[in-house]
Write a structure and sequence with these properties.
CATH class of the largest domain: Alpha Beta
Distance between the termini: 42 Å
Strand content: 5-15%
CATH superfamily of the largest domain: Spore Coat Polysaccharide Biosynthesis Protein SpsA, Chain A
Number of strands: 7
Shape: elongated
Number of domains: 2
CATH topology of the largest domain: Spore Coat Polysaccharide Biosynthesis Protein SpsA, Chain A
Length: about 325
């Protein structure tokens, strides 16, 4: 017997949130119960070491809309979200944090915004209830940097409260700390992205899992996102360009030094600039080689996996005349 159809899946990754999971699930139930649309809550326990698993097991006995995935270890938020996406059954997938700082009542507003034709709607914590220097200031800098580099202008990439059309998530893979870049990755596969202000509450219990140390990981993943969005199918254009610029500069410098030695009889043995010219030429050659290897890997990947280099939104059939 096949399970009942689900229209909305709420995916919630949690880690050591024993005091928050049950009140959060009850809030989700209260927010969506009157909507009249079939829904489910998919909670992914990312290797919690407190009583989170026991609380979820008890909640599953009285909340029929709840499905719980327990991971064998703490794999990180991106991996937990990926697990939730793989097991979500709804055509619309909502994500939110498990710390009760997001308000489930805002899910209805996200769904209404989605009806305007968007594929992704992201929450914006305009009145954020977090420490100013350790959380809000680094977040503002990160949001501005991500928006500038990716070209997807959002006020708040870090807000976990978002809604996606399911077909968009099928084309997006999550690794590392990529979950915070999901709107940009969705735009990469052709999605339209919107944003609305949402409520944000102070943490009521438990400890925050975020810290200033994540900034370095975010910056490194941002480089990956920029490469994927701009040069995924043509790596030679970035590495080859760098190689040509560096190698060309080294070659011009080498020609100038050669002219000085042969025509002007200026000795070069004690001039470090000669080593710089050789280094630039070698580094330029290496970048071009990396670009060519990247082109070979991209072609091998697409041809072996039969992955197209395009994504179709829809096919509109032609009308038939009687």
């Amino acid at each position: 017997m096949s399970p009942d159809p689900v229209e909305i899946s709420v995916v919630v990754p949690v880690y050591n949130e024993q005091d928050n999971v049950v009140p959060l699930l009850e809030s989700i139930r209260d927010a969506l119960e009157g909507l009249g649309r079939p829904y489910e809550a998919v909670v992914v326990d990312d290797g919690s070491t407190d009583a989170t698993a026991e609380r979820l097991r008890e909640a599953a006995e009285r909340l029929p809309m709840l499905r719980v995935l327990r991971l064998r270890g703490n794999f990180g938020q991106s991996a937990a979200l990926a697990a939730g996406f793989d097991h979500a059954r709804g055509d619309l997938v909502v994500t939110m944090d498990g710390d009760r700082q997001n308000d489930p009542a805002d899910i209805l507003r996200l769904l209404d915004k989605l009806k305007e034709g968007y594929d992704v709607v992201s929450g914006w914590r305009r009145e954020r209830r977090d420490p100013f220097w350790s959380r809000r200031v680094p977040s503002r800098f990160a949001n501005a940097l991500i928006s500038w580099i990716t070209g997807v202008r959002l006020h708040d990439y870090g807000c976990a409260l978002k809604v996606y059309r399911r077909e968009i998530l099928r084309d997006v893979a999550l690794y590392g700390e990529m979950h915070r870049f999901l709107p940009a990755l969705a735009r990469w596969v052709g999605a339209t992205v919107g944003e609305i202000p949402v409520a944000h509450w102070p943490r009521r219990s438990g400890l925050s899992k975020y810290g200033i140390g994540r900034t370095v990981r975010v910056l490194l993943d941002l480089l990956t996102v920029k490469f994927l969005m701009s040069y995924w199918t043509r790596p030679i254009q970035i590495f080859g360009l760098l190689g040509l610029c560096l190698g060309g500069a080294g070659a011009l410098l080498g020609l100038a030094l050669t002219y000085q030695r042969l025509v002007q009889a200026i000795p070069l043995a004690n001039r470090p600039i000669l080593l710089l010219a050789v280094l630039l030429i070698l580094v330029g050659f290496q970048f071009v080689s990396i670009g060519l290897l990247g082109e070979m890997l991209v072609r091998t990947y697409h041809e072996s996996q039969q992955k197209p280099v395009y994504i179709i939104r829809e096919i509109i059939p032609t009308g038939t005349k009687s």
